[in-house]
Structure formats: C-alpha cells, structure tokens
Amino acid sequence: MKTLLKSIKREATAVRILLGVKRWLDPVTPDSEELLADDLENIVDAHGEADAFRFEGRRMTYGAFDAYANRVAHWALACGLKRGETVALFMDNCPEYVAIWYGLSKVGVVPALINNQLAGQSLAHCINIVNARLVITGASQSEAMRSAADFLETSPDVWCLGGTCGLSLDEDLPNFSSERPSRELRAGMTNADNCLYIYTSGTTGMPKAARMSHAKVRSTMRTFIAPCGISKKDRVYVAMPLYHTTAGLCGIGVALMTGASVVLREKFSASAFWKDCAEENVSAFVYIGEICRYLLNHRTSIHDRSHRVRVGLGNGLRTDVWEPFLERFGVKKMVEFYGSTEGNVKFMNYDGTVGACGRVPWIARKTYAHVAFVKYDVEKDAPERDENGFCVRAPVGEVGEAIGRIGDNTMTRFEGYQSDDASQKKILRNVFEEGDAWYRTGDLMRQDALGYMYFVDRVGDTYRWKGENVSTNEVAEALSDIPGIQTANVYGVPIPGAEGKAGMASVTTNGYLDYKDLLDRLSARLPKYAIPVFIREQQEAVTTGTFKYRKVELAEDGYDPERVKDPVWYVDPETGAYRRLSPEDFKKIGSGGGRF
How confident is the model at residue 593 (pLDDT cuts 50, 70, 90)? Predict the structure, then answer.
C-alpha cells in the first residue's frame, strides 16, 4: 500500500507540474508573430510599479526597466542598426544588461552575450564570428577590449557604460525618448527569427555562438515557472553570469515573466550568499552545481537558515552535495535540469528526486519521442553501430549517449551555431534509418524504469583504463566525499607503454590530505581500475566563468614536472601506495619503467 501511494503521488505531481509547463509553453510556436519584446511589454503594463530588479542597494521598477530599454531601442536606430544585425554585449551583471538586450530586441537587433571574463584573441573571436556592428562594454571591460583590437576582423564602434574605451553610452542614452518605439519596427518577424546569440563555455576550445530564436528564448524563460511555483510575490536571487543561459534566461525568465523581482548580484560570493537571501527576502535562487559545493564547504553562518528560500533552479548538482545542501540550508527543493543552450534534448527534475537531472513519465513519452539513448564505443570514441550500420539503442538502465531527432517544431529544432561547420559536427546521420539526422549532446546518460534520467559523463571525459570504462564524474564524486578535499576534477592521461589512459585528478584541499586514508576510502568505494593513478594538488580549481571545470589544459599538462608546478602524487606500482612524484619518477614512467 505504501508503494502504491508513493507511485500515485509521484504521477499526480508529474501531471500537475507538466500541465502547468504546458500552459506556459502553448502560446510559443515558431510561426507566431508574438515576440520576446511583446511578452515583456505586456508584463511591464501589468506590473509597472513593482521592482523588476534589486541590485546591490538600488532598485529598478518594471516601468523604469521598460523606459531604459526604449531609450536603447531609439539609440540603436539612430546608430543606423537594422533588423537582424548584431550588437555584442560585453558587460558585468547589472539591471542595464538585461534592459539593453530587451531594448535591442524591440527593433529586431540581435544581441550577442559575450563572457565578460574574455580578453585578447578569445574576445575578438566572439565578436568576429557574429559580425558585430557595435560592441557595448561595462566599466570593467575597457582593458580587455583594447587587448582584442589587433585581432578584430572589422572595426566595430565601441560604446561603454562607465568604462574608458570608446564612446560613452551613459552620456548619449538620456538624449533619446523613453517612449516605446513603434511595433511596426518588428512587424513581419516571427518566433523563428533569431533573438540572441549565447556562447558555449569554451571548455574544449574557442567558444561557439549558438543561435537562440525568439521561440527558444521565450520557451526557456517560461519553462521553469510552474516547477518552481513562481508568482509575482517571489524574489529570485541571481548571482551567476547573465551571459549564460541558466542565469540570463532561466533565472531572469521565471521572475520577469511573472512580475516577480530579480535580486541581482554582480558576482557570486559564498560569504554573501545567504546574507543577501535573508536581507532581501529571497524565495528562489539560481545555481550551477559547483556553487552549491562552495556554499557547503563555506564556514557556518547565522544566515544559513535565517532565510525563506524554498527552491533552487539550475544544473550540474552532484549527488554527493544534494542532500547535505538541503539538510544544512533548509531548502525544500532543487529543480535540476539538463540541456545545452543550442540543443534539442532537455530534461527537468520537477519533483526533486535526488541525483536525477530529469524525468520523462509515461504521460510525456509521446512529447519526448524525439529523444533516444544510443550505445557508445569508448575505444572508437563514436556511437556503436550494428551490422546494418545503424546505431544501437541503449536499454533502460544502461548508459548511452543522449541524442535528439532534428525536426521543425519548437521541441525538435536544432538552430545550431553561427558557424555552419560547427553545427554540422553536432549532427549524427543515418542513426536508425537512412537519411535521418539527430543532434548529438555529447553526454552519456542512464534512464531508469520510472523514467528518471541520470547524467553519467561527457563523451571524451569517460576514458578507458585496464580494459574498463571509467566515468570521470563518478570518480570525482568519490573523491569529493573524502575529508580534506574541497573540489575534484578528473581526466585521463596517457602513460608510455600502457594502453588507454590513466586516471588523474586535480584537487583543491582545505588542509592536510592523508594519502593512505584517501587510498583506503577510494578502494572501499571504487574498483581498482577507477582509482586515480595521479593526483595533483592545486591551490585553486581551474574553471570557466560559469564554474565548469576546465580539463583540456590540465590533461595537456599531465604529470610532467616541467609543466606542473603543483605537488603531484602517484600510485607507486611497486608499493601500491601514493607517494610524491619526483623528476626521477617521471623519467622512469616516461621510459616505460613502471608497470601500472
């Protein structure tokens, strides 16, 4: 009876929340002429006097937000910008950031949201690939902008808010009308038109500019309202970068689409997080998985539970952090989701089941018929094919790469990148029949019998050692449970004379690390082949601006003392224990003198 009641409750929750999501998404169709700017103007009309943003001591009402956006729209027209042209937005978090891209969208101009930590060639690359007509920068980006000048393919005008590079937007903007520009300026546009560019994180090379249609932007901003139970009474805390989809669309969206308030912070601070939440009466927050670990590792505070936060919205939350986080901080629910900016495979864990990144219940299987999981051959680094050349579906409970059939509706469209070559590399063809095309997520996942999805690892992050497949994600979780380790980033490195790649972990610590205890604990939890051969002790984790771990550079460094100045430990093949790697040890390993 208890199991039956649990099942009924689970399915009732699924029906209630998914119907709520459907109500929000039904108005969004590719051929609709109702655009993002129309959504926001309607919200402004309904909530004009309410706070749209509360930002580090100042407020911006919905009315002021719209007025600022209107000035931006008129300014853009005066600059000669035309519908479909691109403006690069390169700024720190602030209310004006959102108001600028809102204003540009009113006249059909496409903002490109660039990582505000870039400089030099990487920054120029992001500007070049979208052919930006103008660049708008913030107070902290002047030097970075100058460093990119020699790498730019054109010479876009630069306008700054508080900076010293280019023309002053602060001085020019007040000269323009705060009245709404004519709706005719975007007449004839549909939801299929491009609304934004959002860049991939660049963990495996230069960032790529992902196209975001009005349909995709509007859907992303609406999807999480029902699962998080957001209403105009809520305050949503956003301390993640606004150039990233999770904060800039998902987090901003659940607030602005409901008339709620965004409590915005320029940068994430573990020490200020719960204090801000308590003082600003926050009820929901946006996260990237690793910030939850940072908060959990941070010293206890009187603010840990002196808040009314009930729900978190985000992705990348590891199982080992999830329950301790809820228990310590008293948050009732985490709405974990899965999906890339550009992709057509998206899942959502709407009921808070620990460890799952989503669920497809029986009532939604038709909606998600475009999603499949295919077996992956780690040695060939490609999906497994059968004797007829078609991909092999991974059974329930087994790991497979998640892929999404490419179609024409809002759920199945793959809008790709500004670069067609980059787009083509993400498409898998002749998957289950001749001529079909599927989007490759590059992620290995597992689905259980109840339809819950569990992230396993990135394709390429899973490496092969001792004839076995090793998941970097699972090893990292095991390491993170060990006393003394704060963060763990796992990857494979080659060893001369050995097949496959040996495991290596770059860790940060909060004190002395007992390597005998570490090995004992790992041995009790992991098979021998999965225990890292090398461990690098870093002072600080190497991450992107959105707290994703960088692995490419670390893997290239390997365990070479000439490249790695941090302490490196390795499992001595002769003793089976960890010991500090010396230059002599490195030479011995390099000559094939160690049997690992």
Answer: low
